[in-house]
Design brief:
Radius of gyration: 18 Å
Protein name: Alpha/beta fold hydrolase
CATH architecture: 3-Layer(aba) Sandwich
Keywords: Hydrolase
Low-confidence stretches: 139-148
Strand order of the largest sheet: 1-2-4-3-5-6-7-8
Shape: globular
Largest sheet: 8 strands, mixed
Number of helices: 8
Structural class: alpha/beta
Oligomer: single chain
GO molecular function: hydrolase activity
InterPro entries: AB_hydrolase, AB_hydrolase_1, AB_hydrolase_fold
Mean pLDDT: 92
CATH superfamily: Alpha/Beta hydrolase fold, catalytic domain
Distance between the termini: 35 Å
Order of helices and strands: EEEHEHEHEHHHEHEH
Number of strands: 8
Length: about 300
């Protein structure tokens, strides 16, 4: 695997690649406030190995969003970018890597970014895998989209309670306190398959790699423009992976997303909450992504 800093408009993004650049590209897009480390090394390696019946490898790319990891970091509370920048960074990153089209795999906010990229830049998206996310609504006025038409169940009571009374910020200068904060944040949204040891290992890595872990909260301060289209415009083959125990976006969100994208396929994941795919789900998640991203893979119905 190779880590590099890439120049994009207004920022440097830290990215890491696995596999052969000549193979089909998979771009992993993380959730809000998340550094790329939450995409486990072994998960990325499994995708890069491409152990599928067709036998092709993959060129896997993961990256730190702005204000996470080693990417461009602004002072906490003062982001120099917009939500539109976060949404445009995947295409900018592909440009910097010299990749024309990629298979996008997005989790949570990253799933929203992947949806937006597929709507607004269809020529750059070979396929979509949308995980632990919800349908984007709110198209531009001329699209005729009624953003209030879709009514889905809200978060579980324990998540609502967490939103009402969030935990205090840690001492950002204390790495151990930062790690505990990250671990508890993941635990609150995970399902029965929560892996405490793996989460602790990743949290330590995130804390050690981050220029300023407090800056990640800048993601909550940025605003985005209306979508220039709707999910009905998506033409990429689409796979929706959703945890059966997601406390933020109950499974109905995944079902609605699969319904909104023509030909999309829904796969529910037992024991999974609102989280990056835990190891217990890799036996389903990895083969599903490899099948979708194989040359001449899953046809669009």
């Amino acid at each position: 695997m190779t880590e590099t800093l890439l120049d994009v408009p207004g920022a440097q993004l830290c990215a890491e690649t696995f596999g052969d650049p000549a193979d089909p590209a998979i771009l992993l897009i993380g959730g809000i406030t998340s550094a790329m480390d939450w995409w486990h090394d072994d998960f990325c390696q499994a995708l890069a190995a491409g152990e599928s019946p067709r036998g092709h490898g993959r060129f896997v790319v993961r990256y730190d969003h702005r204000d996470t990891g080693r990417s461009r970091t602004d002072p906490p509370g003062a982001p120099s970018y917009t939500g539109d920048d976060l949404a445009r960074d995947p295409v900018r990153l592909l440009d910097a890597l010299g990749v024309g089209r990629a298979h996008l795999v997005g989790v949570s906010m990253g799933g929203g970014i992947a949806q937006q990229t597929a709507i607004e830049h269809p020529d750059r998206v070979a396929s979509l895998t949308l995980m632990s996310t919800s349908p984007l609504t709110g198209g531009a006025p001329e699209s005729g989209t009624d953003s209030d038409a879709l009514v889905l169940p809200g978060p579980a009571p324990e998540v609502l309670a967490l939103f009402d009374s969030p935990p205090p910020d840690p001492d950002w200068g204390d790495p151990d306190a930062v790690v505990r904060h990250l671990v508890e944040g993941e635990r609150a949204f995970a399902g029965p398959g929560y892996d405490a040891a793996a989460t602790l290992t990743t949290a330590r890595r995130v804390a050690a790699r981050s220029i300023d872990p407090a800056a990640a909260a800048n993601h909550f301060l940025v605003e985005s423009s209306p979508l220039r289209g709707t999910l009905a415009d998506v033409v990429a083959p689409t796979l929706v992976l959703h945890g059966e125990d997601d406390p933020l976006f109950p499974p109905e969100h995944g079902a609605a997303l699969a319904e909104a994208v023509r030909g999309a396929r829904l796969v529910l994941l037992a024991g999974v909450g609102h989280q990056y795919p835990p190891r217990i789900a890799w036996g389903v998640v990895v083969p599903e992504i490899l099948a979708l991203t194989a040359p001449g893979g899953a046809p669009r119905t």
